[in-house]
C-alpha cells in the first residue's frame, strides 16, 4: 500500500494544500507548523477517526463548517482515489468516485499504522488502551469480528439504557442473550489472536530492545476467568441481575476485559522508564504491521509522528533501520534527521499553510 498524493481542505490550520509522497518522506517544521496534522489527515481517512481527539468538530478549520481529505494511492498493484467529506457531524466516504453508503464497508480498504507518543499508553495500567488496540487490529483483518464488535456495542448500549432506566425485564433478558451470543465469538477470536500475537512479540522483542526477554500475553476476563463458551455470559447476567441494576450498567463482558502483557514475569505497566514504555509500544505496533501483512499480503503505510521523543539518538537510529524494511514510511521531525538521506523532505517552515 502506497500513498502518492494527499490533498486536504479546511483541515486543522490548512485551508487548502496538496502534498506528494515518495516511499520515504520526512515532514519537518517547527512546533505548530502542521506536521502532525498531515499525519492525522492520513490516519483519519484510513481509520475514519483521529488519533488525537474524539471530537471531529475540533479538526475543522476555525471559521469553516467542513473538511475534505482526498488521497491518491496504490493498493494491490492498482491505483485508486479515496475521499472523505466531513460536514454536519457526518462522514461521507468515496472510493474511486463511488460513494460508500456505510462507512464501515470501507474500513480496511486502505490501511495505515500510526506510531506516536500515545503508544506508551499500551503499557498503562488502564485496560482500555490495550483492548482498543486488539479490537482495531483484529477488525482490520477480520470483517466478521468487526461486524460482531459493532453489534455487540450496539446491544450493550441498549442494555445499559434498560438497566439505567429500570426498564422492561423481558427486553433486558433479550439483550442479555444477544450480548452473550456475540461475546462468545469476540472472546474466542481474541484468544486465537493473542496466542499468535505472543509469538510475533517474542520474535521482535530482542530486535527492538537489543536484549533477551520472554514476553507472555494473557487474556484477563471480566467474567472471573470463566470460559464464555462453557459458561455463557447470559448465566452471569442472570445471577448478578441485582448487582447490575444497582450499578445501572453492564458489569461483565468483552468490553471490560484486558490483555495482560508481561516481560520475564513483570507486568508492562510496571516498566520503570518512559523510554522502555515507548519501546514496548513501538514493538506492539511493529507486530501489528507484520500481522496485517501475514493476513492480507500487503504492508500498511507506516506513519511516525514524534514517536521517538523519549529515546536517545542511538536507539532512534536503530528503530529507523528496522523501518527501512517497510514499503512506505512517512515520518515527522522538527528538523531534518541527518541519517535519512534517502528521504524526500517536506519542509513546512518553507511553505505557507
TrEMBL record:
One of its GO terms (molecular function) is single-stranded DNA binding. Residues 3-332 form the RecF/RecN/SMC N-terminal domain. ATP binds at residues 29-36. Pfam families: SMC_N (PF02463). Gene3D superfamilies: P-loop containing nucleotide triphosphate hydrolases (3.40.50.300), RecF/RecN/SMC, N-terminal domain (1.20.1050.90). HAMAP family: RecF. PANTHER family: DNA REPLICATION AND REPAIR PROTEIN RECF. This is DNA replication and repair protein RecF. It comes from candidate division WOR-3 bacterium.
